[in-house]
Amino acid sequence: MNKNTFPHLLSQLTASTIKFGLLILLVLTAAPARGQTQVDPETALRMLNSQQHQFEKGVIKVADNVFTAVGFHGANTSMIVGTDGVIIIDTLFGPASATKAAEAFRQYSDKPVKAIIYTHSHGDHIGGASAFIRDEQPDIYATERFGSAEGVNKAVDPVKAKRNVRQFGRKLSAAESTNRGVAPAGTEDGDRGEGFLSPTVTVPSSGLKTTIAGVEIELHFAPGETDDALFIWLPKEKVLFAGDNFYSSFPNLYAIRGTAYRDVLNWSQSVGKMAEFQPHAVVPGHTMPIQGQEAATTALKDYSEAIRSVYDQTVRGINAGKGPDQLAHEVELPEHLKDKPYLIQFYGSVPHAVRAIYTGLLGWYDGNPTTLNPLEPKIKAQKMAELAGGTQPLTEQMQSALADHDYQWALELSDHVKWLDDADRQLARKVKIAALRGLAAREYNAPNRNYYLSYANELESGQLSEIWF
Fold first, then answer.
1. Comparing 82 with 4, which gets the higher pLDDT?
2. Which residue ranges does the record assign to the Metallo-beta-lactamase domain (predicted)?
């Protein structure tokens, strides 16, 4: 940020936002170079705590007839009030959370539900539909690709379920939990999907313009986080509902729980299309609505540009012969976007996005013949030990890295030591646990932090097999 523009920006912000803006400046100077999300523990915790305001529970009045419920679960749900009924956009995770949101909405309108619109098929947006209706049978809108959000391959669902728990920190203690980057840590999850109602109206890829309960509404196909996504435009109210293609964090272009390739170029283009409408308010799939034409439109333009920049930088690096490990440490957001509060890497991560783009475009092989048929882990560990002068010197190097707070190196060395038959494998496990917790303490990226802590707990409790350790 230009130092001359900062005072002007501050004059437009609330006290809480000013505090967060100052924290952004702090992280820009404190964070290591090359796009990583590690800072000192105090700053990391302060940043994550500051993000909490993005999902404080309540109903936000977005326009005279538009209301968004934030913080009732991980995602948002919205209500548009028409002449003889209401339209519900997204329905949360299950009936328990959705019932509370529906009750909050009824303070503003008790009209019957005429339609429900799903922005995409992720479970936290579709599982509570039944809680919003009584005797009515509303039309339920979704794209013709609805249901493709997680891909079609169910073979790896068992491991994805485990990784999902880690990414979202679902089993972390209250002392360990912060949040999920774009959602609160504590959500009611026991009734997942029990209120889901199947779509009855298919939105074609060309889009749909219609009138529901006297409200003019447009549904636009918008692949991005999922291939079945749409956004909703209210032309009279100038309100745009973005679904999960936009929220206040750098986007999760790859989810570490495990996802098929999310077409990054499509995502950028879809958000760019949203910006063309110049909305007076944009309602994200998660986090607080952004109101005011300049603020909302600028946020969408910046978001589209940020995604496209990461894509373009990665492609240029690929064509220059660089591999994913190098690019993950080189690609960064443009300077003029780094200080935007809706692009801080609380949820998505630039390095993870780079790796996903590389794999999505070229597959796993980086083009270097050295990595075409690498040594198996046990053999590599033995050779690392020989290089260090034996198992004991390698173990000492591992312990020294931990003592020096060089947590990533300690982590990598522990994974070598664990394979050695003559090593103290229990010590290696303890070092790995400590290194994971050391990394977690420095993370302001919530999925990274949650995953490190969850994995450390699983190791400590003996839940993980020797293969995983």
1. 82
2. 74-286
Residue 247 has what DSSP assignment? -
CA-CA distance, 1 to 337, in Å (whole number)? Answer: 9
Which of these, 102, 81, 82, lies nearest to 90 by C-alpha position? 102
In angstroms, the CA 185 to CA 176 distance is 10
Cα–Cα distance between 256 and 163 in angstroms, integer?
7
Under the banding of pLDDT at 50, 70 and 90, the label for residue 154 is: confident
CB 148 within 8 A of CB 124: no
Query: Which residues, at least 6 apart from 7, have a Cβ–Cβ distance to it below 8 Å?
Result: none
12: which 2 tokens?
């437009």
For residue 409, how far is the Cα from the chain centroid?
A: 26
Backbone dihedral angles phi then psi of residue 18, each to the nearest 5 degrees: -60, -45
Coil, helix or strand for 445?
coil
**Do residues 74 and 91 touch, judged by C-beta distance below 8 A?**
no
Count of residues in the chain: 469
Q: How far apart are the C-alpha atoms of 78 and 76, rounded to whole Å?
A: 7
CA distance 431 to 425: 10
- Beta strand ranges found along 196-335 (DSSP E): 201-203, 208-212, 215-221, 230-234, 239-243, 281-284, 290-291
Residue 224 and residue 261: Cα distance in Å, rounded?
10
Q: Sketch out the chain's domains with CATH numbers.
A: 1-30 (no CATH), 51-303 (3.60.15.30), 375-461 (1.25.40.880)
Gyration radius of the chain's alpha carbons: 23
CA neighbours closer than 13 Å in the CB half-sphere of residue 200: 10
Q: Mind listing the pLDDT tens digit for each residue in 60-111?
A: 999 999 999 999 999 999 999 999 999 999 999 999 999 999 999 999 999 9
